Sequence to fold (123 residues):
Amino acid sequence: MEDNINTKNKEERDWEKTGIKVLDMAKQELFLGMRYMFLALNMLGYKADRRIRFVATDGSFLYYNPVLLIENYKKNPTDVNRAYLHMIMHCLFRQKSIKTKTIYSFGICHVTYVQNILLMELN
Fold:
């Protein structure tokens, strides 16, 4: 997908802008409940990519499919918050999936466990 904003039509730009708003709302909601996560929640830039099924990260950027992100947000906004936090936790614990090899500095169950504890704080 071409990153040059000039080659994108207005509808694509509108979807991307709305997607960024959804991600920013998720980030703000997480921040309100976990102020100590400020730096971690702000560590990823956003990039739209329609090849992504929902959201993904490489540790530098949060890639999102604007259409699927907005559809998921309409169904259940909490899912977007959970996905955002889950990716941040993977980055913090340096878990990456590279092709067929998976590198874990901690087990994936630890990320899910810690994420659930943090999410309980929000409720």
Observations:
- The first strand starts at residue 45 and ends at 48.
- Residues 98-110 have pLDDT under 50 and may be disordered.
- Residues 14 and 117 are 35 Å apart (CA to CA).
- The radius of gyration is 15 Å.
